[in-house]
Amino acid sequence: MTAVDVEMPLIGSVRATATYELVVEQVRRAIYLGRFLPGDKLPPERDLASQMGVSRTTIREAVRVLEGEGLVTVRRGATGGLIVLGQAKLTPGQVKSYMEAQRGLLDSVFEFRLANECAAASLAATRRTETHLKRLGRALEEMDRLGATAEARERTGNIARFSAWDSEFHLGIAQASLNPFLVKAVEDARAAMFLPIGRVFTRLEDHANEHHAAIFEAVRDRDATAAADHMQAHIEATRRALHGLLPKAKKAMREAG
User: Fold this and answer.
1) Between the CA of residue 158 and those of 146, 153, 201, what are the distances in Å?
2) pLDDT digits (tens, 9 = 90+) for 19-52
């Protein structure tokens, strides 16, 4: 049977989506993309309802789901509110099991990133504006600062901050491509990486910021080929680093035993 012989449904099934689920998806995505960091306070219930055009009851239903997922907590009192939580870190044994279980998903995400982000980098080099360069330069400066020293890389809080600026950089590249489909694709990939990756790091990797400067310089210099090549090298290096966590986890388990 060839590919053309496979019968595909002409129209898929439809499931009614409750309004609170749409709210959950938007807030979850904002957290996954680093727009809200652990410890940040989300807008008050009244403001969220107004911004999203829904009732406060809908916001409360969404908050219950987000609480159940461990993404937010509600703190009472004058200084309380809806607070974003950090992800629970895993033990070496849990990292091994988790990474093995997520290997297929991670490989799919990185294949998706290679297909879309290299194209975005190439287009960004030919279409970027000075405003785009300023955004990318700011993200690059912040990542340099957060990963500048061994002491900075050991600070747990810097992992989430670095990830947020890393998202800002990659989304900035996509925005500079001036292609809304690539922007959506890069957002989807960044969001998908949040749970598979965010739970396994206890420090910033020494080479976490590798290749970003080269990507920036190629985009600045309008070198489309170099921009795509450096983006490919960066994504492949990130994938190798994640795969490298498995032997590290096994070694840690042997030493602990």
Assistant:
1) 6, 7, 11
2) 999 999 999 999 888 899 888 999 999 999 999 9
Tokens encoding 147: 């990963």
Predicted confidence band of residue 179 (pLDDT cuts 50, 70, 90): very high
pLDDT digits (tens, 9 = 90+) for 153-168: 888 788 888 989 999 9
Cα 84 to Cα 12, 28, 30, 177, distances in angstroms: 36, 10, 11, 31
Q: Which long-range contacts (CB under 8 A, 24 or more apart) does 193-199 make?
A: 193/106, 193/109, 194/31, 194/32, 194/33, 195/32, 195/87, 196/102, 196/105, 196/106, 196/109, 197/106, 197/242, 198/87, 198/159, 198/160, 198/163, 199/87, 199/88, 199/89, 199/90, 199/98
Nearest to 163 by CA among 111, 201, 133: 201
What's the average model confidence in pLDDT over 182-190?
95
Backbone angles phi, psi at 5, to 5 degrees: -80, -15
Q: Which pLDDT score, from 0 to 100, does residue 232 have?
A: 97
Residue among 67, 30, 60 at smallest CA distance from 44: 60
Degrees (nearest 5) of the Cα angle 7, 9, 10?
A: 115
CB 143 within 8 A of CB 167: no
pTM of the full structure:
0.78
Nearest to 109 by CA among 255, 216, 236: 236
Burial of 5 (0-12, 13-18, 19+ CB in 10 A): exposed
The structure tokens listed for 141 are 């400066």
